[in-house]
Amino acid sequence: MKKIIFVTGARSEYDLLYSVLKKLNQLAEIDLSILVTGAHLSEQFGKTLVHIEQDGFKIADKVYNLVDTNEKIGRVISLGHQIPAFAQTFIRLKPDVVMVAGDREEAISTAITAAYMGIVVAHFFGGDIAKDGNIDNSVRYATSKFAHLHFTTHPAHADVLRRLGEEPERIFVVGNPALDRFLETPVLDRQALSTALQFDITQGNYLVLVQHAIITEYAQSAVNIRQTLDAIVATGCNCLINYPNSDAGNYEIIKAYQEYAQKYPQLFLFQNLERTLFINVLRHAACLVGNSSLGILEAPSLGLPVVNVGSRQRGRLNAGNVIFTDYDTTQILAAIQQSLFDMAYRQSIKNIVNPYGDGHSAEKIVTILKNLVIDEKVIYKNITY
Amino acid sequence: MKKIIFVTGARSEYDLLYSVLKKLNQLAEIDLSILVTGAHLSEQFGKTLVHIEQDGFKIADKVYNLVDTNEKIGRVISLGHQIPAFAQTFIRLKPDVVMVAGDREEAISTAITAAYMGIVVAHFFGGDIAKDGNIDNSVRYATSKFAHLHFTTHPAHADVLRRLGEEPERIFVVGNPALDRFLETPVLDRQALSTALQFDITQGNYLVLVQHAIITEYAQSAVNIRQTLDAIVATGCNCLINYPNSDAGNYEIIKAYQEYAQKYPQLFLFQNLERTLFINVLRHAACLVGNSSLGILEAPSLGLPVVNVGSRQRGRLNAGNVIFTDYDTTQILAAIQQSLFDMAYRQSIKNIVNPYGDGHSAEKIVTILKNLVIDEKVIYKNITY
Amino acid sequence: MKKIIFVTGARSEYDLLYSVLKKLNQLAEIDLSILVTGAHLSEQFGKTLVHIEQDGFKIADKVYNLVDTNEKIGRVISLGHQIPAFAQTFIRLKPDVVMVAGDREEAISTAITAAYMGIVVAHFFGGDIAKDGNIDNSVRYATSKFAHLHFTTHPAHADVLRRLGEEPERIFVVGNPALDRFLETPVLDRQALSTALQFDITQGNYLVLVQHAIITEYAQSAVNIRQTLDAIVATGCNCLINYPNSDAGNYEIIKAYQEYAQKYPQLFLFQNLERTLFINVLRHAACLVGNSSLGILEAPSLGLPVVNVGSRQRGRLNAGNVIFTDYDTTQILAAIQQSLFDMAYRQSIKNIVNPYGDGHSAEKIVTILKNLVIDEKVIYKNITY
Amino acid sequence: MKKIIFVTGARSEYDLLYSVLKKLNQLAEIDLSILVTGAHLSEQFGKTLVHIEQDGFKIADKVYNLVDTNEKIGRVISLGHQIPAFAQTFIRLKPDVVMVAGDREEAISTAITAAYMGIVVAHFFGGDIAKDGNIDNSVRYATSKFAHLHFTTHPAHADVLRRLGEEPERIFVVGNPALDRFLETPVLDRQALSTALQFDITQGNYLVLVQHAIITEYAQSAVNIRQTLDAIVATGCNCLINYPNSDAGNYEIIKAYQEYAQKYPQLFLFQNLERTLFINVLRHAACLVGNSSLGILEAPSLGLPVVNVGSRQRGRLNAGNVIFTDYDTTQILAAIQQSLFDMAYRQSIKNIVNPYGDGHSAEKIVTILKNLVIDEKVIYKNITY
Question: Nearest CA of chain D to the CA of B40: how many Å?
């Protein structure tokens, strides 16, 4: 029996890995549990622990660590508090493997804790490159340096990991498991969707906005988001707006959302939409606006044009469905209009191939984990040069 | 006025950086303080905080974090507790730069804390390679991924950092500042040394033993060190033995030392020897045994042959003065005897060039720090590929 | 020079002690600094650190500890994180005395930390009794058991402390220093106040509502507060509503406030009103509603009738200006109407004597602290029986 | 099924409660687990976790918290780190009751954590009085203020708790459960004991020394213990010496023990002796020296004379078998000689009644816990005045 703990601090990464977790949970030879931390446990961020429990997963521990502040210091104190807490879980359960995803606090704190304790770390989404000077990049690369297994979404990412000195036999290109659910999620029509949301999107084009705060720009959050909101309002389209993650600056963004939503009935705010609903919201959307990785990683599978605003995601390999703009109403408006009305552009995106996977990632990942032999060779990492 | 905080958790790294700290402290335009943590604050490890205070440095804060256990979990819990504590110091003092050295807990916890808070991290001794599968490697490379300035001791290390994607303009080859003190430390003769130590080393060859525990081998510590001690006893030489660092497994090593020292009067244990004495102990020694980085980095400047026992330091570039052996009495004894009696070998080492520096590192480092412009460009890191 | 650190985690206790702090800061023989923590550092609670800085006090350290959750576990994790953080401050500054007030997390964590470190703890507002089964009671009494000096507001409180076994010479009845500012704060008329608040209260009776969440009832917060809001709306009066403290359940209260405020223009929400304005708001108010200790401790000095809703404050000695009600709209409405229209009752309250002090507390407290001899006798506590 | 967690940080309190734990573990309606922390997890203090595991108890969690320092700050940092760690265990297991004993860090940290989380706290050995000005007193009384059930060893202690305002129905006089094992532990003769210990105590009088460091006197530890050791050496008797607890100052004591033991073969050091052996060591001893609570609480059941050295235990109610002395060789020697050779005194002690229990405490305690109804009434504490 192989014991695996998945550590998750945010709805987004839980959703990305959901297809893998579901498959692992069905295997008799895998004992999976989930260590829930970060934004999952905060009412402000929708207390998404509830979803994980409803999905039927075993909870390894709940680690309440999110420090209530808008300042940069908050994230790193929260990270620090996770380490002894995770160590307490790991020494009790003695997992064979811990899994983490991405480039947030949980990724690095989990990887450090497990690596020091001699536990195999499986890291998802390493090797990605975003040229935005953000702390996330440092976190992602550093996490790779502690990880023993790398599940990447693209050959270019695997290549980055090899250049970082990671041994080739530790690196697997498996694609993005989030795409699996696009194949699996049943289609809802706009009428059903409108009823479920209690917001009418049966008619016309609508936009979806997902914008996260950037720690290095958190003081400008309030100004920047207004540039986007003004452009959206100017289109006259309905827009479904998803709450941001728990980064420094997100309070300002939420405040702006609430203020605009009160003034403009075309705007509809939601938080932690149920997965099936959210995928269908994207399916019928005319354009995704903001700076979510959704636009890069998942939108191509839906043939969805994306307007990426600001520095986040810049420099990341994309399928050709993304227009990058500054925090500038005019630029944003132009990009949205191109996405909505430039028919040649829309057509080119419609059947684009998603470079990040084919919807069959979960089975590849699960097979690798199932067959993994846990021995000294896996634990003892060396740099290849 | 540029505010700099040096974070240190062990006597060894404090000594390595001492020449830099002393020079920084003399500059009117630099406000230097030292954040003291880890083994410096433990009576078990000689409470070396006292030396730092005696050397006249300003103490930024004292962070008591070392968890009292011999298990692997101890180091990572200790690391976790440092992060909120360091954040508390950094938000109070708002340093322009924090400096850390090497690959221990303090290195990564400092680098993470500062990087998240948008403070420039200057890291010493990055890019080094040890092919021992130890956690220290992961820590060292991960620290580099958070650092904004890299002070390396060798062009080959700078090359590793570039391959890790670090931007070339952040990397400086400055040599090992620990070598500076060899030029500066007055020579004591064997008589004076014997008096100071209260142990007679006026006659014949004597050895120095410095062996640190290895986290991945901590259960074997007790067995491994006995192999070395048996070899040393068999030489009949006097041997000065330095206490190990605060790693898992060090209790077993200390216990073996005390047991052997009680039996064999040729063995002499010491802890945290005063710097001038220690350098002179090395100057007159016939051979350095163990697994300290001293053998690789500093012994060449003294023309000192080294027997490196076990996996630590293996794969690190050395000047040709090091014989590597397993934990095996026969091998170790043979290597010590070659170091003592193979005259051609001894001669070749006598005037060897130390590839790690020329004794003028501190001034290079201080100049770079003095001239450093702290702006967004320094803070915003990008990977070069 | 006597070094004193005041530890504060909430605006309320800072305001209560403000007159003392101001006086201490003016003395040459006292070196006062303030350790700021808890809600002071949260944007959600108005980031009142800013006020402390503006008031010109030296900040000893900023301890970000508030865990972002609405569950009961949040408060105690926050408390735990304060202890090592406070210890870090105390060992750096080596205060002669630390001061804390009341019965919140900061009180007990400060008292424990200082008592273990052999530092004198001066505790304000001990010996008070509230018969509500709340954790605050346990915290208050336990804090007294760690404290070396007790500054109480009423002889009955001093009596409780003596019965708890506290040595009489450690107990001082000094009154509530918050009352000092009533004498000192200049009077603003309703016109000036309306202009400052940007809310018109020039005409008619207005109410003030201050309701804090109760940890043991936090699940009912949303329901309970609506009972009060319905009663207030039914009076037709304007009502100024102050945000609650950072206790579990406060999110529900805030949400209800925002919802009602959107519907009823007679309601006006404010957060961390500037002190002079707030005192004048109370001066002209017709009735204070809620469960704030203001009603018990300070309202008598203003001749202000109070309607105390729910279990908080119940059992506390009061001047006769308080009507206690359940969470019940009918009861609350009746009590407000009695407070507004029962002229005999209003008259009886007008010139009531405040049993909690005469407005000259700060000078008494400062004199005691100034003359305090810090020796082993102060530190070594014994129970009197 | 009632879920109970016992929190323990030291061998001594585990032993005191062992008879209760064993009985609870046998009940089908009780789900008992043990949260192991503090000195139990330190190799320095004999890693007594191993005993708990061998005794067959379920481990709830292991909380590594002991900070490696000899300074006073160490204990309170260790205490602080326990709170979030305990909260993590409690929110996972949702115990009905947590049990703690005595007046050490674990007692107060457990009581605070559970009380804030609305979990019933059962506290053992509250209400005891020691007039030594030590922090332990403050900890013990403060723990009582958070506890919901008090298991006391003596009516006088119950009386103290009532005077502290604790409600009478929460207080139970059950005696000291450590005495139960005296009835249950089989008798070993001196020959068997000598064989087991590998130290010959078949002939003549022997002493037992158990001396713990006192935090407020930790700087004098080294001097004080030498006064005792000199007296013991002067008696010419064999002496079995038990290691001290993990308090500040204990390193100095251990060092002195090792130094004297090397010089005087009549001294025999042991650490964490197996329970049956230790009880038999006490059974045959001529006199117990030191400052352990054993002398007060348990020695009367064995008719054992005690010399209590220094301030610890002073003022505690005792059966008449204890002579109190200062840290003074002459006084200590005289008291030991009286204990050994004053036949009237020895006779008076032989069949003394132990005021702290009759050896049937565990069954009383277990019955109370079994019948306890967990409801709001138990949780909501009020002071009785």
Answer: 10
- Same domain for D14 and D151, yes or no, is yes
- Rg for chain C (alpha carbons), in Å? 20
Q: Which residues of C touch D112 (CB under 8 A)?
A: 76, 79, 108, 142
Q: Is residue C235 located within the same domain as residue C140?
A: no
Is the Cβ–Cβ distance between D140 and D103 less than 8 Å? yes
The strand pair at C267-270 and C238-242 is best described as parallel
Instruction: Please judge whether C42 and A68 are an interchain contact, meaning their C-beta atoms are less than 8 angstroms apart.
Output: yes
Q: What is the domain-level CATH number for residue C72?
A: 3.40.50.2000
Residue in chain C closest to B81 (alpha carbons) equals: C84
What gap in Å lies between CA D333 and CA D339, rounded to an integer?
Answer: 10
**What is the rounded distance in angstroms from the CA atom of residue A60 to the CA atom of residue B137?**
30
Contact between chains at D381 and C215 (C-beta distance less than 8 A): no
> Smallest Cα–Cα separation from C317: which of C156, C178, C161?
C156
Neighbours of chain D (3+ CB pairs under 8 A): A, B, C
CB A128 within 8 A of CB A138: no
A70–C contact, CB cutoff 8 A = yes
pTM value is 0.90
The residue type of D218 is Y
Q: Which residues of D touch A88 (CB under 8 A)?
A: 61-63, 85, 88-89
Mean pLDDT taken over chain D: 94
φ, ψ of residue D160 to 5 degrees: the values are -60, -45
**Residue A317 domain boundaries:** 184-350
Nearest Cα of chain B lies from the Cα of A124 at a distance, in angstroms, of 17
Residues B169 and B267 in one domain: no
Distance CA B4, CA B178 (A): 20
How many domains, in total, are found in chain C? Answer: 2
Q: Which residues of D touch B88 (CB under 8 A)?
A: none
User: Do D85 and D200 share a domain, yes or no?
Assistant: no
| Rounded-to-integer distance, Cα C7 and Cα C147, Å | 14
State how beta strands C238-242 and C206-210 pair.
parallel
Residue B70 in any domain: the answer is yes
- ipTM reported for the complex surpasses 0.85: yes
Is the pLDDT reported for residue A133 higher than 80? no
Residues C298 and C161 in one domain: no
Co-location of A10 and A59 in the same domain: yes
Per residue in B227-280, pLDDT tens? 999 999 999 999 999 988 766 678 889 989 999 999 999 999 998 788 889 999
* Residue D182 within a domain: no
Count contacts between B and C (CB, < 8 Å): 31
> Do A266 and A139 sit in the same domain of this protein?
no
Q: Is residue D311 part of a domain?
A: yes
CA distance B49 to chain D (A): 12
CA distance B253 to chain A (A): 20
- Whether residue C182 lies inside any domain: the answer is no
Q: Percent of chain A, pLDDT > 90?
A: 83
Phi, psi dihedrals of residue C241, rounded to the nearest 5°:
-115, 125
The verdict on C219 touching D (C-beta cutoff 8 Å) is: no
* pLDDT 10s digits, B71-103: 999 999 999 999 999 999 999 999 999 999 999
C363 neighbors C151 (Cβ within 8 angstroms): no
| Same domain as B229, residue B146 | no
